[in-house]
Amino acid sequence: MFSSKSVKIPETLKKVAEIFNRNGYSVYLVGGAVRDMIMGKGVHDYDLATDATPEQVMNIFHKVIPTGIQHGTVTVHIFGMHLETTTFRTESDYSDGRHPDKVEYARTIEEDLSRRDFTMNAIAADLKDGTIKDPFDGMGDIKRKTIRTVGNPLERFGEDGLRPIRAIRFAGQLGFTIEKETLKSISNPDVIRKIKSISIERFHDEFCKIMKCEKPSVCLRLLEDNGLMDIFIPEFKVCRGCIQGDKRGFHEFDVADHNFYACDGAPKDNLIVRLAAFYHDIGKPESRTTETIGKIEYIHFHGHETISEKKCRASMTALKFSNDDIKQVTHLVKNHMFFYESTWSDSAVRRFLIRIGIENLDNLIYLRLADIHGMHNVAAVPGSPTWNNLVELKERIAKVVSEKSALSLKDLKANGNDLMNAGIPKGPHLGKILAELFETVTESPAMNDKEKLVELAKNIYEQKIKAKQE
Ligand code: ATP
Ligand code: MG
């Protein structure tokens, strides 16, 4: 896989190369696609680099979208593919930590490769035959599983504060190690200043990619050790060193590592649960109390989920997550401390389900499994008591759902109009009556019958509302 000096270009891409070449331009496959091909991994998108200007690319292809014309990038739509195509560029100053001040086109692919972040990302493959250009021994670094900047790391990180975060993300995504000098430069004060200047949106995107790595804990630890967690998620600091293990042996790690390993234990493709796992115990340090019974000290974190929820909301808002993401994640964090027991009545199961919302149930269970994973950095074992407890809870829930009992107001067999038709006057008390009907039905599903509900509503109105008004 490493000895060859070419990669295999798919036939459709060769046809695209022919169009460029026929018009007198060269074109290369660059970036992650080449890296992933060399590693023998599947490629998810193809980035091209060419000496044709954006205007020239627009002239030779039928459908071209100017997706990032200020960076010299257009997207060519052809043969069902969307090919991000960027004109060779030179090094530009990323002085505001965001965008290059100006785009300057380069003449050669070598010049273009020299402005790229890491050696493994600075390899080009000629699109017509796959011949490799690798001026910085990126293939060697891929072989050694090493992330190394192209040129001096202090300079390269000093140009763009996102690069250190990308290095950390790639470490988790590819399972590579960051080369010593490159790593050391991340915490250099000048680089830290540059990192602080990047836009939150750029950090947000990298943070989400980190959360989707096989083991986010690898990246989270690197962020923390190099001072970046303090910059972007300052709420996290108090978790480090917050000891939670007592004689009961629930916890092996401090809150920080517990949260990290909980992330690893959440499903890789489920960002919501991964984030909830990251934040679920962030409120523990503030709620920590100890109690000594006999000679044994116990550690408690009463009500920590409410503090975690608050901190999670503040952090996710600062990181510019969408309102919907924040709502879903904080809901899970707030409700992660449930303890199902077989003795729960059906109405207790219904009340639990109503509080959680059926749409959040799977995520809450995934979060519990992640939480268990975070305790000793091992997954819950199928068939173990904790596992069986969750399976039983799911079965009980399936049962109450199949009974078609009312799980929200709209499932009630009587609505506001029915109550008004029965002679109850319009007014804010209708909402209160409906809420009481809903509670009754949660306790006794057999009450979910229009006639019975209308009758009950009339009684509530006569006895609790009209009587008060008189
Ligand atoms: P993936 O798409 O799998 O996240 P990638 O390496 O393709 O990884 P992109 O963000 O798609 O990453 O960028 C494509 C290429 O552009 C990179 O491989 C790298 O050569 C270059 N690049 C991207 N961001 C930067 C940056 N901040 N500084 C320098 N070069 C960069
Ligand atoms: Mg890419």
The proportion of residues in beta strands is 5-15%
What's the average pLDDT? Answer: 92
Radius of gyration: 29 Å
Cα distance, first to last residue?
A: 88 Å
How many separate helices?
Answer: 23
* Order of neighbouring strands in the sheet with most strands: 3-4-5-2-1-6-7
- For the report, how would you describe the main beta sheet? 7 strands, mixed
User: Which ligands, by name, code or SMILES, are bound?
Assistant: adenosine-5'-triphosphate, magnesium ion
Helix content: 40-55%
Q: Uncertain regions: pLDDT < 50 for 5+ in a row? A: none
Structural class, by secondary structure, is: alpha+beta
Question: Into how many domains do the coordinates divide?
Answer: 4
Number of strands: 11
CA-based shape:
globular
